[in-house]
Fold:
Amino acid sequence: DNCVGCKLCMLACSWARNKTYCLINAAIQIEIDEKIFKPKIIIDETRCMGCKVCIKNCPEGALLEGVEEA
Structure:
């Protein structure tokens, strides 16, 4: 519930994976539920390297909670 949708985790993941700041390259995605305007964290386990750079770069600690796997 701490995710504010800043997408810093996505930027960090993209850089760790491909040395680019292209959000589409990230294994983690933040989607906004437009009905309740709440961000949802989704991690593609097939693309995740397990480096935890997303956790280290989350200013709200949202990734310390559970996440939904794609």
About this structure: The chain has two helices and three strands. The CA atoms of residues 12 and 53 lie 6 Å apart. The longest strand covers residues 28-33. The radius of gyration is 11 Å.
